[in-house]
Specification:
- The chain contains 13 helices and eight strands.
- The protein has 280 residues and is α/β, with parallel strands linked by helices.
- The chain has a single domain, classed as 3-Layer(aba) Sandwich (Rossmann fold).
- It has an eight-stranded mixed beta sheet, with helices on both faces.
Length: 280
């Protein structure tokens, strides 16, 4: 529906594609990897029915936004979000991020403040810090992320097939909670992203968000954290539960048996938690 210029790469503008629907208190939806704003289909419908203005956008390198060769880090992603919010002059807005999109939420608050923001919802989040280190012994070994990057570089078409099998726990959900056609549509969206993005974003996943989490806590903003107990992409013990422990004031919801891709497979539970939070 619209495009916003957030920068330039050589001779071309870097543009974000966005959709802006409905009226009421605004909600901005920030998608996960390797999808785009259309991945919020089931949430958008519920939010519009509840009387919200809903803004979704495609991150740089994904969907209908510019397929850039650079800028795949959270400082840049958060700056892009800031341009969107400022250009649309959004106020009293709730930011809702899914998976990789939760990084923008935390980094935005840390960099740009929270004057325009009324709440934050983290769905299947990657916070507080994924990588195993001496000061983060419960994290994931760095070799895991090196393997992901190598697989995405070697053959992103095959990599995305395996990724979505784990994203949706297809051994358990295919044919019951998600159709093969929906999975194929996700794959088609993924391969339409910038080829460099498939592997370049991996480095952003392992950024240390602990300082950003502290900025979120210090902001005093209402926070919702939702995570599936069967998440095989960002396991709940390494992410959601630790994140909730770091933000004890947050509203924390576990969705029993839900995979990482719970926006689709467990849309009813996600929408209920999100709408309850927005009614606070």
């Amino acid at each position: 529906m619209g495009r916003i210029t957030v920068g330039r790469e050589n001779s071309t503008p870097i543009e974000l594609y966005y959709e802006d629907q409905g009226e009421g208190r605004p909600v901005v939806l920030i998608h996960g990897y390797p999808l785009d704003g259309r991945s919020w289909e089931r949430q958008t419908r519920a939010l519009l029915s509840a009387g919200h203005r809903v803004i979704s956008y495609d991150r740089r390198g994904f969907g209908r936004s510019s397929l850039t060769g650079t800028g795949y880090d959270y400082d840049t992603f958060a700056a892009d979000l800031d341009v969107l919010i400022s250009t649309l002059d959004l106020r009293d807005v709730t930011l809702v991020g899914f998976s990789m999109g939760t990084g923008e939420l935390a980094r935005y608050v840390g960099r740009s403040g929270h004057e325009r923001i009324s709440g934050l919802a983290f769905l299947a989040s990657l916070e507080p810090f994924l990588v195993q280190r001496d000061d983060n012994p419960d994290g994931v070994p760095s070799e895991v992320f090196e393997g992901i990057e190598s697989a995405a570089l070697a053959d992103r078409f095959a990599w995305f097939r395996q990724f979505f099998a784990d994203f949706y726990n297809l051994d358990d959900t295919l044919g019951t909670r998600i159709s093969q056609e929906a999975v194929d549509a996700n794959w088609a969206t993924a391969i339409g992203s910038a080829p460099v993005a498939a592997s370049a974003v991996v480095a952003s996943w392992i950024e240390d968000f602990r300082g950003d989490v502290e900025a979120v806590r210090a902001s005093g903003l209402p926070v919702l954290i939702v995570h599936g107990t069967a998440d095989n992409i960002l396991p709940i013990d390494a992410t959601g539960r630790r994140f909730a422990a770091a933000l004890p004031e947050a509203r924390y919801v576990e969705v029993e048996g839900a995979p990482h891709g719970l926006l689709w497979t467990h849309a009813e539970e996600v929408n209920r938690a999100l709408l309850d939070f927005l009614r606070r």
